[in-house]
Amino acid sequence: MQIIPSSMLPERDPKALREFLSGCRETARKKGHFQIASITLDVKHIAPLAVLQSIYEPEELHFYVERASEDEALAGAEAVVSASFSGADRFAQAKAFAREILENTIAVGDLEVPLAGPHFFTAFTFDDAVPEGSIFPPATIFLPRWQVSKAKGHYGAVANLRIDPDSDLDQLVARVWGAYQKFTAFDYPDHAPVRATSPGTCTRRELNAGHYPQAVAQALEAIGRGEYEKIVLARGIELEREEDWQPLDALNRLRERFSGCYAFSFGAGGGRSFIGATPERLLRIENGKLMTVALAGSAPRGTEAAEDARYARDLLTSEKDLHEHACVRDSILRRLEKVGIHARADQFPRLLSLANVQHLRTRIEAEVGEGVHLLDVAAELHPTPAVGGSPREQAVPQIKELEAMDRGLYAGVVGWFNHLNDGEMIVGIRSALIEGRIARLMAGAGIVEGSEPDKEMRETEIKLKALLDVLTGG
Has 286 been annotated as catalytic? Predict the structure, then answer.
């Protein structure tokens, strides 16, 4: 990526902008390839979700992620370039696509602020192949036309433009200058439109009703035969109401209720959005440091302090849950070794207490060399035993047959990365696929020796409740 120092464009006015874009157009003519002009601005204050709501177009791709407890959020909308891929090498194809775009990108502006410059947004389904007619392809990657962020006390806005050899510069200047004026002094409405939090008449339907306990029993038989050690099985429900769901409104309630989780949304266009509040990070790379987490083993939250403490104690001493957790931790460490990363894990798991459930959690960290791309690591880690199984090669191929449904983006990977190889990928659990009047929810549980079908069914119901309460106003 070519970076133009801000000192070369000291004036911030339409004339200087036109001069920069003219240079980009000349480069496009010389190289015979379109260029991406990426312009970053350090702004006083901006709220990514509020901006996304203001520019939201149901037919356009969009991305949003926020972890309120860390005061970090990132949103992008409208694809200036995009691609989709399938197959076992889908992560590698997405990486190659991004590399080609970056080789034809010219960036300028306040590139020293956090989350500056062009960012690619991605979504990878659980499986590397999906049935015909699926909403999401196995891999989606796009560079947004507009991106806004907040991180470490800084706020930024990025405009990415496609510059072809015959691009109309006057039109581009008008578009960017208008966005510059909007984002540097974003105007939030005094009174947001009031929408009912209750969905009114809402019907619930179980996908494959009565199937889940039978699937768990079949998995336990396979575990007893030594076919695999652990497998994660999910069940799904559909909610239907008289009016269309409002995915970004539900997302706002999710981020308020589950501030310790990653609130996220990936829009497929056509008014379809995959939203959720996941506690699980697949990986993050920042300044060459990799951070991931082993998350497995679950218990309810108590209504009183004593009950909550009893659930926590039982989880920390549960042989079944500690075994399940160790499967996930050890698998992550082995997978990182495969890409040349020697990681360090906490000696003992700790509790991660969320609003409706608590988990066993182990932090894992490592240094990453320049030769290892974030998507290389994601390809090796996905799916972890927390959402797939162990050994992966034996367990994961059995999931689709046992569940008898297509997971889509559920338990898949959603995230972002940039030209510095910084980025973050999260696991799409505690999620819902919103399409018009239909909301499809899934939740899973890890099946190991000692699991009981009825208990696993109750665990999935606890996990579903987070989304159910938000969507139905509970």
Answer: no
- Tell me how crowded residue 89 is: count the other CB atoms within 10 A of its CB: 14
Q: What are phi and psi of 13, to 5 degrees?
A: -145, 170
Contact of 179 with 161, CB cutoff 8 Å = no
Over residues 386-407, the mean pLDDT reads 94
CATH class (in words) of the domain with range 203-472: alpha beta
* Nearest C-alpha neighbor of 284 from the set 177, 366, 404, 393: 366
Q: With bands split at pLDDT 50, 70 and 90, how would you rate the model's confidence at 207? A: very high
- Residue 194 pLDDT > 60: no
Q: Is the pLDDT of residue 7 over 80?
A: no
Q: Which residue matches tokens 């990363």?
A: 341
Report DSSP state, residue 382.
S
Please identify which of the residues 66, 72, 229, 280 carries the catalytic annotation.
Answer: 280
SS3 label, residue 392 = helix
Could you tell me how many residues make up the chain? 474
User: What is the tens place of the pLDDT at every residue in 141-155?
Assistant: 999 999 999 998 899
Rounded average pLDDT over 379-399:
94
Mean residue pLDDT of the chain comes to 91
| From 230, 380, 403, 463, the catalytic residue | 230
Instruction: Look up residue 399 and give its amino acid.
Output: I
Mean pLDDT for the stretch of residues 313-321: 92
Question: In this structure, what DSSP letter does residue 473 have?
Answer: T
For the record, the structure tokens of 214 come out as 């039978």
CA 249/CA 253 separation, integer angstroms: 7
> What is the domain partition of the chain in residue ranges?
2-184, 203-472
Select from 91, 109, 123 the least CA-distant residue to 4: 109
List, as one string, the DSSP characters of 325-380: HHHHHHHHHHHHHHTT---EE-SS-EEEE-SSEEEEEEEEEEE--TT--HHHHHHH
Sorting pLDDT into bands at 50, 70 and 90, what band is 10? Answer: low
pTM of the full structure: 0.93
Answer yes or no: are the C-beta atoms of 274 and 136 closer than 8 Å.
yes
What is the spatial distance between Cα 16 and Cα 13, in angstroms, rounded to a whole number? 6
| Residue 257 · residue 407 · CB < 8 Å | no
338 is catalytic: no
Burial 10-21 (b: 16+ CB within 10 A, else e): eeeeeeebbebb
Do the beta carbons of residue 91 and residue 378 sit within 8 Å? yes
Question: What does the H/E/C string look like for 285-303?
Answer: EECCEEEEEEEEEEEECCC
